[in-house]
Specification:
8 strands; 4-stranded antiparallel sheet; alpha+beta
Length: about 180
């Protein structure tokens, strides 16, 4: 993002204390490759099953072909969603200000430090550090970090506290932790 873009999003008296981008990863890095391969095998198996059922029942019920095409499309979406998540998360820029955590990609999203009650820094098998914030993410396993990093921040509607926010692939981790933990 251009500096003026982040500056347009900042409040008048808000200062950037840290900025960085998500690290680039290989699509087949552990543990993400295992997760992808399992989904791919399941989708291929389901697609083959649907095709076999379609071939056996097409003459008896022509609607089976339509159902088969829908199932194939759903399976293709599941597989290609993993590819899209990887590409999306690598475009993110992260900012720590004196008031909040900001994530920029297609649009800005942020959470004020006062609305972060639970968080965890987690490293995957490749040493990539991810910040997991909120009840629904702090217990997630490494195989889901990259995908979760491409999802929007979600506040709890009842409390206003962050329920789900993930910053995948933080660079300059020690400085990031120092600033983040001094504000939470």
């Amino acid at each position: 993002m251009e500096t003026e873009t982040i500056n347009d999003y900042l409040e008048k008296d808000e200062r950037i204390l840290w900025s960085g981008k998500s690290v680039k990863t290989s699509f087949m890095d552990k543990p993400y490759a295992i997760n992808f391969i399992i989904k791919l095998v399941i989708c291929i198996a389901l697609t083959l099953l649907v095709v076999i059922i379609c071939i056996k029942n097409a003459e008896a019920n022509p609607k089976v072909i339509g159902v088969a095409l829908i199932m194939i499309a759903i399976n293709a979406y599941v597989v290609f969603r993993n590819i899209k998540d990887k590409r999306d998360v690598e475009k993110y820029e992260y900012y720590l200000t004196d008031k909040r955590v900001i994530s920029f990609s297609r649009y800005p999203q942020s959470v004020e430090y006062k609305n972060i009650d639970k968080y965890r820094f987690a490293d995957d098998e490749n040493g990539i550090t991810t910040l997991l914030m909120g009840n629904s993410t702090i217990k997630k396993t490494a195989s889901s970090y990259r995908s979760l990093g491409s999802y929007p921040f979600v506040p709890d509607p009842d409390t206003g506290m962050i329920s789900r926010a993930v910053l995948f692939g933080i660079q300059d981790v020690e400085r990031f932790k120092e600033i983040f933990e001094s504000h939470v």
